[in-house]
Design the sequence.
């Protein structure tokens, strides 16, 4: 239903802001490979929770990207 996390440019790009933006607002993409929608979770996850989720995904599934802090999430949310 969705692209894999392993080695994903989306997951590993920069400091995690792009990935956080998708989690905040959700995303819908329908094509031959991927169908469905990821619901927006910005209103239901705290900054700490979101930082933990992003850090987990960025550091697992063969990814080795840097951790995300709650302070970063707070700054991104305020944008």
Sequence:
């Amino acid at each position: 239903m969705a692209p894999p996390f392993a080695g994903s440019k989306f997951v590993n790009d920069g400091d995690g802001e792009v990935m956080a933006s998708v989690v905040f607002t959700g995303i819908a993409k329908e094509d031959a490979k991927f169908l469905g929608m990821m619901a927006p979770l910005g209103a239901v996850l705290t900054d700490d929770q979101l930082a933990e989720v992003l850090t987990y995904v960025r550091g697992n599934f063969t990814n080795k990207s840097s951790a995300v802090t709650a302070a970063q999430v707070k700054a991104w949310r305020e944008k």
About this structure: The chain has one domain: 9-78. The two ends are 29 Å apart (CA to CA).
